[in-house]
Amino acid sequence: xxxxxxxxxxxxxxxxxxxxxxxxxxxxxxxxxxxxxxxxxxxxxxxxxxxxxxxxxxxxxxxxxxxxxxxxxxxxxxxxxxxxxxxxxxxxxxxxxxxxxxxxxxxxxxxxxxxxxxxxxxxxxxxxxxxxxxxxxxxxxxxxxxxxxxxxxxxxxxxxxxxxxxxxxxxxxxxxxxxxxxxxxxxxxxxxxxxxxxxxxxxxxxxxxxxxxxxxxxxxxxxxxxxxxxxxxxxxxxxxxxxxxxxxxxxxxxxxxxxxxxxxxxxxxxxxxxxxxxxxxxxxxxxxxxxxxxxxxxxxxxxxxxxxxxxxxxxxxxxxxxxxxxxxxxxxxxxxxxxxxxxxxxxxxxxxxxxxxxxxxxxxxxxxxxxxxxxxxxxxxxxxxxxxxxxxxxxxxxxxxxxxxxxxxxxxxxxxxxxxxxxxxxxxxxxxxxxxxxxxxxxxxxxxxxxxxxxxxxxxxxxxxxxxxxxxxxxxxxxxxxxxxxxxxxxxxxxxxxxxxxxxxxxxxxxxxxxxxxxxxxxxxxxxxxxxxxxxxxxxxxxxxxxxxxxxxxxxxxxxxxxxxxxxxxxxxxxxxxxxxxxxxxxxxxxxxxxxxxxxxxxxxxxxxxxxxxxxxxxxxx
Length: 622
Prior knowledge:
By secondary structure, the protein is of the alpha/beta class. The chain has 14 helices and 28 strands. The protein is elongated.
């Protein structure tokens, strides 16, 4: 059993054994509150991972062996198609509640539901599960549809609202009353807690459980007509008050709620509960595979019960583990707190895991889809290292982002032996990963800007950048040697670095073949433009902020720094919404909200360093 102080290992986390020939890899399985540690021993160097997301091989918890590329939901659909269970049809749905913005966890569900439908030649419905008008808004509905489309998926004609079916749901409730399977209950919520009891012992029947059918029908009709105040009556299913599953103890089907609905207006004053509505929505739409996250496993018995009593189309509910990321919170409540308390600048703040925030940070839809596929689909909870998401982002941007030169912390560099009035252009590669991207011209003159971090007066060993008397390569341009520095008399800060240039090294190569280890980036002072650059970092300083008593105590005070950068001319015309790699710095995105041609604002997507890829390389070497 997992001890109190132990953390859930991240996906692919490696734990070294004291036995030299073997590698021990472990993961934590969490289900229904119990935590179990699985220990697996395999020959050293096989590269085995419990989740094995990186090479597309996933564990199926229901079998002894893992099948390459076939997670357990694929295996279920494969078997259904083999037996003809649904006549070869695959109909899935993504049913968000329109009470907030989608985040990366929802994106996993979007990719899974739409992905399975696409893979099997089926359809996926987009449905707004709008059964609670108090918390739902058109703003969220519009945002959800935009985010799903941005992720790369299309529902075609299959866009629905749960509220489209309110009349049919009402008729189904009437049918349950007529069958003696539902009744109107007048117990308050506090009173019901006493009657419902706890899982370890049976509950007590409501004193209204055996109302006559005609009386229930009359009261339910009057509830719909608006004769009763909020909370005074509910319609309950007559299930099993002895069930250890509290959701089966006379589930509430309808409650009174005098509130305007964003889709139906004032037409209704009674609204179905999630557990009642969801299974009916799936049934009405002809869903075959109702895929949802693991917390809904305890909701499956009422899902099945309602459909069985009504004798209508009965989809199969399948649960999978939700996504959990290090350095991230995904609770809607906590995300709302962060926004309302102004720890972030809105729902599209690039530090948030919302789809809108990820988009504004410069994350691509393809990288999110790739990440969700690599994480895989399991029946147990795990903690995924955010470095894997970052790896997928870098992997995609590396292929498509054009390169450019930008200096974020500029200091003047003067080339003493270059004519003051002269200038020339050097040819630079736009993307070494894509030869078709071509080249561009970068202007060069006597005065340049370099990054302050690329110069040290008294460098430590193995420092290969610029220092007094040291020679470095200016990217694409040539070799320079530092001869002197000029400092501010009052502060002692370096305000100018002076160098001599080797004109025979134009383009970056020494004609005599001498080796120069350091290469730094630069921009021409005469031609450089000014750009605002926002340096975003992780929002939290600890891996599991949710595990802490107050997650807000671990907010990263340095999660956003804004700097005034000097950039090459090409970046001054960067269109809003475009991706770039600032050479030697990182990946950046021309903010689609604030950026303008001639006045660009760049958001840092990620630095260049890829800790996930490096850890994989080290594992392979072992």
